[in-house]
């Protein structure tokens, strides 16, 4: 099975790539991490690393590009190495750690290209930073972004709120109640729930901590739940 970690910069993708792969190994599975972030050397030992082929800082220098242009160009260059990056032999789980800038993955063809080449079941885990959830609107914006992952990559996705050792987001219903009768935002939230139900299998967000491993059992159950619900489609 493939797990693609997505989410805004700093939400903890690289940290959870390492700690969740260790968790899976402790559960008796073989698990490896593929680094797809051409701008950051991973702190873990990846089974394959895009930086062996493309380094954003070198693209910047060689092609005389600014940081954003270099990151975009790096994705184009990396797409040519997908065959080398996707591991061939039988891992139970391959976790893909993606670039800090979510939009690079979402709005270039790289993400779709990757998904189209993966042969086994693939689930997206959208990682949000719990410390940035300060209101029903920030919460709903993150849930909506997670649903967009499903639409853009055509894979089921799970929303995981990371850093729950520092801040715990509340239940969906709590925010829904808070917004009830609150005009446009309340109405939007109600519709969002239907949208999320339609676009991803699990709309119940999972609370995790990449640092402490809290919530990893729930995350693993959610991954399996998605697999059981969609497995026959892959
Ligand atoms: P990425 O850009 O999404 O890959 O994020 P990183 O994995 O590089 O993490 C960004 C920062 O958040 C680092 O300083 C991590 O140590 C920190 N971090 C990641 N996960 C957690 C967590 O669960 N709890 C806390 N407290 N910090 C975390
Ligand atoms: Mg990272």
From TrEMBL:
Family annotation (Gene3D superfamilies): P-loop containing nucleotide triphosphate hydrolases
A Pfam family = ATP_bind_1
Keyword Nucleotide-binding carried by entry: yes
Enumerate the UniProt keywords alphabetically.
GTP-binding, Hydrolase, Nucleotide-binding
Named from the GO MF annotations, one term is: GTPase activity
Q: Where do the coiled-coil regions begin and end? A: none
**Which domain of life does this protein belong to?**
Archaea
Q: Does the keyword Ligase apply?
A: no
Q: Which family does it belong to?
A: Belongs to the GPN-loop GTPase family.
The identity of this protein, by name, is: GTPase SAR1
């Amino acid at each position: 099975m493939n797990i693609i970690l997505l989410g805004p910069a700093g939400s903890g993708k690289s940290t959870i790539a390492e700690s969740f792969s260790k968790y899976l190994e402790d559960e008796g599975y073989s698990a490896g991490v593929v680094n797809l972030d051409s701008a950051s050397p991973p702190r873990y030992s990846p089974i394959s690393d895009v930086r062996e082929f493309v380094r954003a800082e070198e693209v910047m220098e060689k092609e005389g590009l600014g940081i954003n242009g270099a990151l975009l160009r790096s994705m184009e260059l990396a797409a040519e190495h997908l065959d080398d990056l996707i591991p061939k032999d039988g891992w139970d789980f391959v976790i893909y750690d993606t670039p800090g800038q979510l939009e690079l993955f979402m709005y270039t063809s790289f993400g779709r290209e990757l998904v189209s080449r993966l042969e086994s079941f693939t689930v997206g885990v959208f990682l949000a930073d719990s410390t940035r959830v300060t209101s029903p609107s920030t919460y709903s914006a993150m849930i909506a972004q997670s649903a967009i992952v499903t639409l853009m990559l055509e894979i089921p996705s799970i929303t995981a709120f990371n850093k729950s050792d520092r801040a715990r987001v509340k239940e969906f219903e709590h925010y829904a109640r808070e917004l009830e009768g609150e005009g446009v935002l309340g109405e939007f939230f109600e519709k969002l729930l239907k949208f999320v139900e339609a676009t991803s299998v699990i709309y119940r967000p999972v609370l995790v901590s990449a640092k402490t491993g809290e919530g990893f059992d729930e995350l693993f159950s959610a991954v399996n739940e998605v697999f059981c619900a969609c497995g026959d489609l892959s």
